[in-house]
Write a structure and sequence with these properties.
The strands form two sheets. Strands 7-8-9-6-10-11-12-14-13 form a nine-stranded mixed β-sheet. The protein has a five-stranded parallel β-sheet with strand order 2-1-3-4-5, sandwiched between helices. Strand 10 and strand 11 form a beta hairpin. It has nine helices and 14 strands. By secondary structure, the protein is of the alpha/beta class.
Length: about 325
């Protein structure tokens, strides 16, 4: 039985508590949250002990789940790793690159399992394309959200865009060549809307737009590669694949077009979307990595690489603001 301690029982922490209660072979030994009102509500609703001392909760468990605000990530994770505890921490990995690098070093030295909560890796619309050979040369992303004061302690890049940065880095097997970006703070002191262009050594280009001041919600990624287009709708859990038809393909719809190279058949397919609770899936995968001594799907290095690109984007935006 894996004993888990949850740090942070706010909006996201409650989702984690709900899911841990449903995951086999785990026990929530308690939670830590300094907000008395939140803690009293959670203790009563979930019938889970509240710990008033974070160190005591770390001592009492095998693994911790950190859903606290980003500025607390380093302190909690560092204390847990030094006690040999496994760590799941929500994105972004840490508040600064120095903190993130320190956690990666500590995790490597301790040999514990470490997973970063880039939950879109477990979105059913994304899972539906896992069997495809993805080699995109152009990627277009729009992640738009309505304004919510919660989470505005970090920029839209570290709040929203980092999800897509992580997925793109996992798909594009090439180093980043250059980054350009622009953004503006509208409702907060940090960028609330931003656009970034990431160029890779292999020629792939990713164009990302993220906003937390939109009138409508959107979470879409479009991948363009030789002979095919893949559209992933993370919000509505839909995936579409348009490609040149191969013999034996089973597709929803197909039609012929005339090209300079002759007639070709275009096929449109909508792959089966698995019924998956993304948060539960990522927590289950974390548990399985501990029990089976396997690699976590989103490692501390993945979290560090996503943060590195996000911070480069922030630096580009800052430079552009200063120049203007």
């Amino acid at each position: 039985m894996l004993k888990v301690g949850v740090f942070g029982a706010g909006h996201l922490g409650k989702f984690h508590l709900n899911n841990w209660k449903e995951i086999a072979d785990t026990e929530i030994v308690g939670f830590f949250d300094p907000n008395d009102d939140t803690a009293i509500e959670v203790a009563e609703k979930y019938q889970i002990p509240r710990f008033l001392d974070a160190a005591l909760l770390i001592e009492a468990c095998d693994a911790i789940d950190v859903a606290a605000p980003t500025n607390f990530h380093f302190e909690i994770c560092e204390a847990a790793i030094k006690k040999g505890k496994h760590v799941f921490v929500e994105k972004p990995l840490a508040n600064t690159m120095t903190e993130a690098r320190s956690l990666v070093k500590l995790a490597a030295e301790s040999g514990i399992k470490f997973q970063v909560g880039h939950v879109e890796r477990f979105n059913p619309a994304y899972l539906a394309v896992q069997e495809l050979e993805l080699n995109p040369m152009f990627i277009e992303v729009h992640r738009l959200a309505q304004f919510n004061p919660r989470g505005t302690e970090v920029s839209v890049i570290l709040d929203l865009m980092i999800h897509d940065i992580d997925i793109i880095l996992s798909i594009v097997k090439s180093d980043v060549k250059s980054i350009s970006a622009s953004g503006v703070g509208v409702m907060t002191e940090t960028p609330d809307i931003a656009n970034a262009r990431i160029e890779f050594d292999n020629g792939c280009v990713a164009n990302l737009t993220s906003s937390r001041i939109s009138m409508k919600k959107m979470r879409k990624m479009r991948l363009f590669q030789k002979d095919s287009y893949i559209g992933i709708d993370f919000l509505n859990k839909k995936t579409e694949i348009i490609k040149l038809k191969e013999s034996g393909d089973s597709n929803v719809f197909a039609f012929d077009i005339e090209t300079p190279g002759g007639k070709k058949t275009i096929a449109i397919a909508n792959p089966v979307i698995p019924e998956v609770n993304a948060i539960r899936r990522e927590l289950e995968e974390f548990k399985d990595a501990i029990i089976n001594n396997t690699k976590t799907i989103v490692s501390e290095m993945d979290g560090l690489m996503a943060m590195d690109v996000a911070h480069q984007i922030l630096e580009k935006i800052g430079t552009n603001i200063l120049e203007h």
